[in-house]
Each structure stands twice: as C-alpha cells, then as structure tokens.
Amino acid sequence: MKRTLFLSGLCAALCLALFSFASAQRRPAAKPTATPSAHKVSGPYAHKNLSVFLIHGSDQTGGKTYLTLQEAMRQKKVVVHETKNVNQLAIENVSNEEIYVQSGDIVKGGQQDRVLSMDIIVPPRSGRMPIAAFCVEQGRWSKRANEGVMAFSASEKSLNSKDLKLAAKRSQSQQEVWRNVAVAQGKLAKSVNAPVAAADSATSLQLTLENKTVTATAQEYMKTLTPIIADKPDVIGYAFAINGEFNSADVYASPALFRKLWNKLLEASAIEAIGELDQHKPDPKLDKVVTVKAVEATLADAERGTVSDKDVTPRVKLRTRENKEHILFETRDQQRKEAWVHRNYVKK
C-alpha cells in the first residue's frame, strides 16, 4: 500500500514538473530593454514650422576628436572612390586622423550622387574600405559637367527627410530611396513655388538641395537657429519637431563632434521643414505644441525598444532599439569597449 502511494506521488510530481517545464518553454522570452539615459533638454527654439530642442550632457570620449566627412573632403584627407557598384563605394583615409562618417551624408559626383547609409569610423591611413551606399540620382551613369567620375568631390549635404533616412538605414531599399527622393523634390517645389529639379540632372537630390530658392529659404531658418548653441558648450545633440510633431533627434558622445556637424544637420532639418510648409499658411499657427517633457519622454521610450546588433565594420557596431512608436540607431565603437558615438532617435 505504502509502495503504491509512493509511486502515485512520484508520478504526480513528475507530471507537475514536466507541465511546468513545458509552460516555461512556451513562455515568450523577455524583450531586452535599456535603462533610459538622463537627458537634459532645453527649448524650444522656433522658426516658422520648425521647433528645435537642445540636448545637454558631458563629453563621454575623454576629449577624443574626429574629422567629419565634410571636413576631410574639404581638406583632401579622404577619398571616396567610385566603384561602379551602385550600392557600395570605397573610402580611403589618407590622413593621420580618424574620420567619422554619418549615415545620410551625400557624396557628390562619380557616376551618380550617392548617400552613405551607415555610420562608420575610418581609421588613419586606412587603405580602401568598402562603404554601403544608395543612389540619390536616378538615371545618370556618366560624367556630369566638369566633375570627377572616379572619385567624389564633396559632402556638403545630407538627407533631408525622415522617410529618406529610414529608407537608406532601416529598409535599405534602393527603390524606396528613389521614391522618397521624388517625394522630397515634389514637396519642395510646391513649398517654394518654383522648380527645384536641375537641368543637369532632374533626379539629383544633391542638385535640388543646392537649388538657389531652396537654399535661400533654408537660410531664413539658419539665420534664426544656428546661433542658439553659441553660448552653450555642453550641447551634445538636438531634437526637432515639424508642424508640431516630433520628428527625430541626434545625440553625440562629444560636444565637439556635435558642433562640427551642427550646420549640416540643421540645414537638413530646415529643408525638411520647408517641404512641409503649407503655401497658403506661410506662418502656420500650430495646433500641437511639442514640449520639453514630451521630448524627454520620447527619447526615453525609444531607449526601451527591443535590441538587435549588426557589425557594420570590424570596428563599428550598429545597435538598433525598436518598438511600436520609435526606433533608435546607436553607433558603437568596438575598439573602445563598445562605447556609443552617435544616437539617432526617430519617430516612425
């Protein structure tokens, strides 16, 4: 009798254990999350339909400096080579300094203007390194005017819309990039009430961004907003809203790097805002107002997304955090114990 009771109890215990194990196996894994960073945000600073918020913080790099791609090309310290492969170029650092390339940087010339789709750090005397790219000029595959065809001449502009940035960095779709170039050109033409496609190449986003009417309109924004960081040495990034809707934010581990990029970043944001202006309401009264608290909450929410990692180069890792509302792209330097260099927050 005792033996029977013992065996019955043992059987019940085993069944319970097996049931518990099976239940545990079916339970979805917990989603990786991040502890939100403490962001100090100030603003807004506004011009027309563009509201800018400054993000303050300390230098996380120990004073480390980079050349930006714009600087390096101006100083002829880097060569971006045409490879005749639409979606991959080669970059060569010929200097003794490190060069930071940011996703969204446009390089002008070659067989077609391209946008570089990923952040990378190019080491000194690098030799040729592959770099992912997308065409932002559909159709041309030849020399344009007096530009060099085997190397690119400059990187003065960057992608000017959230949808374009996501097409290049998240979707990584050439068709989506071309489609969004056309959309951006159409919006700008409507907003400035003038043609923005260049005679030399109607599909070139680069030449549209150089259009005199577009640049003159952007300068109105720049004149108001460029000086807002002048007396604020602790600014490490900015967020912006267009027509009362949060758009995106860029934050850097170094105030010095942010200052180098500020004009280029702000111009792209201004041109995006121009594309969203209603011609019938040149100074729109916004129904929605983005607040400092709303920006802080958005940044914190983006940092709670599910994590995925991708090695862009042996040195640079792209960490993506994504949830229903937001996506955060985080560039990490694997030579510095995966220290972050750049965080790009985007509202979907």
Explain what the structure shows:
By secondary structure, the chain is an alpha+beta fold. It has one domain (40-347). 32% of the residues lie in helices and 28% in strands. The chain has eight helices and 17 strands. It has helices spanning 2-26, 69-74, 162-171, 174-192, 205-209, 212-225, 255-275, 292-302, and strands at residues 40-47, 50-56, 67-68, 78-81, 88-93, 99-101, 106-109, 114-116, 120-122, 127-135, 152-154, 235-242, 245-252, 306-311, 316-322, 326-333, 339-347. The strands form three sheets. The chain has an eight-stranded antiparallel sheet with strand order 1-2-12-13-17-16-15-14, sandwiched between helices. It has a six-stranded antiparallel sheet with strand order 4-5-10-8-7-11. Strand 15 and strand 16 (326-333) form a beta hairpin. The protein is globular and about 50 Å long. Mean pLDDT is 89; it is low at 1-36.
The number of distinct β-strands equals 17
Number of helical elements:
8
Strand order of the largest sheet: 1-2-12-13-17-16-15-14
Helix fraction by DSSP (H/I, runs of at least 4): 25-40%
Question: What's the structural blueprint in terms of helices and strands?
Answer:
Elements: H1 2-26, E1 40-47, E2 50-56, E3 67-68, H2 69-74, E4 78-81, E5 88-93, E6 99-101, E7 106-109, E8 114-116, E9 120-122, E10 127-135, E11 152-154, H3 162-171, H4 174-192, H5 205-209, H6 212-225, E12 235-242, E13 245-252, H7 255-275, H8 292-302, E14 306-311, E15 316-322, E16 326-333, E17 339-347
Parallel strand pairs: 3-6
Antiparallel strand pairs: 1-2, 2-12, 4-5, 5-10, 6-9, 7-8, 7-11, 8-10, 12-13, 13-17, 14-15, 15-16, 16-17
Helix pairs in contact: 3-4, 4-7, 6-7
